Amino acid sequence: MSGRMVTVGSEIAGITCRGGRRANEDSYTILLLPFGYLIAVADGIGGQRSGDRASSLAISTLRDYISEKYSGGLGNDECHQILREGFAAADKAVKEAAVGDAKGMGTTLVAALIRRDIAIIAHTGDSRAYHLSGQIISVTRDHSLVCDMVERGLLDPSEIQHHPLRSYITRSIGGSFIVTSTMDTLHPGDVLLLATDGFYEYLDEDSLVCESLRLDPADILRRLMQKVLTITPDNATAVIYRHPV
User: Fold this and answer.
1) DSSP-assigned beta bridge partners for residue 132
2) pTM (predicted TM-score)
3) Residue-range definition of the domain harbouring residue 124
4) pLDDT tens for residues 181-222?
5) Mean pLDDT within 159-168
6) For residue 148, what is the domain's CATH number?
7) Rounded to an integer, what distance in angstroms lies between the CA atom of residue 198 and that of residue 200?
């Protein structure tokens, strides 16, 4: 398996692979914080127009913003606010950099600010957050055309995977920006997965749940990525956090 994996103790692992593409436009980060972590995943948009630069810039801007503003004494509402502000800072940075050959670049972004037993999750675009605890729950709702069509009753959910416009996103960093955020409670042994569409589109829910129950994060990612790389034509990136028992 070709890919870059980073682990933090036995709790967190992240990996990105080029998959079937010439270049990898995905980025991710894992940041150790007092009493917690920041984890984030981004999927660049723009192809030859610097999608890789957009995802990297969004991740680094968010990471720098949280590093500067976060402290262990902040409450959940304050953490929620700085995460949303970090997304806005990333959007501003990408838009300011989108000049010349980089005009039109953008990226999805999903992040979790984890502190003690709370995960504050924010996203824009179609990169996702999943909560696994014996079952799989999608914490995020894609900002995408097909999800909007389903919500309006114009498309059946079973048709999404094969719809020709399934990859068309309606919100992004650097584009039509909006950030959606929520709080999620973590129990001992629960798993939080952040992933780009090149990773989650090619996994079934049974695989996700089965692997998450019995392996540590690094082994989960190795096994899941091996399955993904046999079929994905896209870049694939994911970060997994397991809450301590």
Assistant:
1) 136, 191
2) 0.92
3) 4-242
4) 999 999 999 999 999 999 998 877 777 777 777 788 999 899
5) 73
6) 3.60.40.10
7) 6
